[in-house]
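ok trying this again, last paste got cut off
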Amino acid sequence: MEKTEHPPLTVERLLQLPVFRGAKVMAGHAGINKEIYYMTSMEMPDLTGFLRPNELIITTGYSVRNEPALISRLLDEMHQTGCSAIGIKTRKVIQEIPQEALYKSELYGIPLFDIPLENSFIDMTHAVIDQILNRQAFMLREVREVNQQFTNLVLNRRTTELVVLIGHLLSCEVAVLKENGEIESCTSHFQAAEVLVKRAVQVGSRIMGHIAITRELKEQDRFEQMCLDHAVTVLAIEFTIRQSQQLQREREQESFMVELFSGSSHQEDLLRYRAKQLGISLRAFYYVVIVRITDKTGQDLSRQEEQHTLLYNHFLQKINKPGMNTRKGVVINDSMIVLCSSVHQEVEKQREDAEALLRELLSHEEELVADVQLTVGIGGARQMLVEVPASSMEAHRALSIGQHTLPKQRIVHFYEVLVEDLLLDAAGHPVLQMLTSILIEPIVTYDKEYGTELVATLSAFLKSGGNTKRVAEELFIHRNSVLYRLERIGEILQIDVNDPEVRFRLDVAMRVWKTKGVDVQSIQ
């Protein structure tokens, strides 16, 4: 984006200035288009450490009059630094430039030109500095205008237009990439395979994304370099704004979820309005899934809490990621409570969704979950948001009861423990205590005394509806062993386990006995 009234000051344009009239390039013609940013008048033999990129050196050669070969060393330094050109008044002190210096000038593409004796160094310096300052002032005005356009586009959240403008200024295809490398927006003909340069967009110590361009900018592309630098800066502002908005949204979602699960709000219309504003999907049914982490290693409590906190944060990032609106989670009292919205209310469908959720949470987390296990409780589906607290309570009860009655299941729906839940409400009733003391405790005592597994066998028998084949498969024993154990249970209890009425009482007694360890107060 160059303006003809202030083109770059190249070596070629320099030699066209009136004060350089009569100057002649002796070698290094290939660098005639190098741009000049700085100028130095050299009258000391060594400029090591003082040279700058794109610098013009002019000299009378006085400092090297006794050793002209030093010009070659100076050209080496200029090449390493990236200087633009050198002008020497060859007929004032040095009568002839050494051939080695001319060779290196040609080799490095650094123009070496002869300055006529009558040309004044002061006039030349003023003219060059004037050109450089005018050029810099022009570029600063242009960059300021560009930066203003960039800033306006960012503040008005028009990232796509910003990308198009960057592409126009840099004369190439451009894309803004997300943190994971996905293309967020790009110019119309952008191809990932054609990317030559990627610039990181960093906020603090975190890289939030990249600008990818299909052009490699050269040293002389100062304006384009400045435009790219400003683009990176304003995109960092854009990403900061997004991050701030996302954090604010997450805090508002968390506050809403805590309020929703607590049941403190009883206005359905207001709850639905807030949910919609926060991007939470409103569908036909709502239910709650609670995920709890339990430790398998017996490590100390502080280490457990640290690991659980880390895991819950990982899980929340997956559940609450942008675009995932059918599930939103929050961690409350060492459990992750997830609000799910669905078009289905069937228990099996809820279970399938919970299994999919578990797979998603555990994917790529093998090291983190090696020492823990996840258990899930599911509450019943509701049609109204004000009823979500009831589903949440059911999920809590499913987890707590299932831990004792269905210890091998990692996913328990409340409907699977409805009877146990009812019996817990009558916990301590004399009739229930009598049933367990008559029908369960004698075989528990027998198991402890003789090392048998009669309780496990009876539990599997009752759960299978009296199917001894299924009991044998579940316990990995022969069917005859199952029949023998059932016969022994009948002898100990003085009952017929195949009698329907007896089996019903056994089932009730077994359920009561299994729920003995449930903390009733914690699930009220």
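PB: full thing came through this time. The first helix runs from residue 11 to 14.
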